């Protein structure tokens, strides 16, 4: 289960026009990203803000799983994109 289960978070996000959902923790990142993706939210994962128990898990997630579910990037890359969007 992701962070959107059993709460009114989805309703709250949608009522405020939020379409971006970001996650930043190893435990629960994939399940929450999958759930947000299934709910048609645009998911962003900040790769350098996630901790992992081992390097192999990090590589597998960043290479094979997260790109299917989300836009990914470093914190600085994502801030740059958001700044460009806010100026448009």
UniProtKB/TrEMBL annotation:
Domain Isochorismatase-like: 2-71
Entry-linked InterPro entries: Isochorismatase-like_dom, Isochorismatase-like_sf
Transmembrane segments: none
Classification via Pfam families: Isochorismatase
Name this polypeptide is given: Isochorismatase-like domain-containing protein
Organism: Agrobacterium rosae
Phylogenetic lineage: Bacteria, Pseudomonadati, Pseudomonadota, Alphaproteobacteria, Hyphomicrobiales
């Amino acid at each position: 289960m992701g962070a959107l289960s059993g709460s009114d978070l989805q309703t709250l996000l949608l009522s405020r026009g939020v379409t971006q959902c970001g996650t930043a923790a190893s435990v629960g990142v994939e399940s929450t990203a999958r759930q947000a993706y299934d709910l048609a939210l645009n998911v962003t994962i900040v790769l350098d803000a996630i901790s992992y128990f081992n390097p192999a898990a990090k590589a597998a997630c960043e290479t094979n799983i997260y790109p299917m579910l989300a836009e990914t990037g470093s914190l600085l890359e994502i801030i740059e994109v958001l700044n460009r969007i806010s100026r448009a």
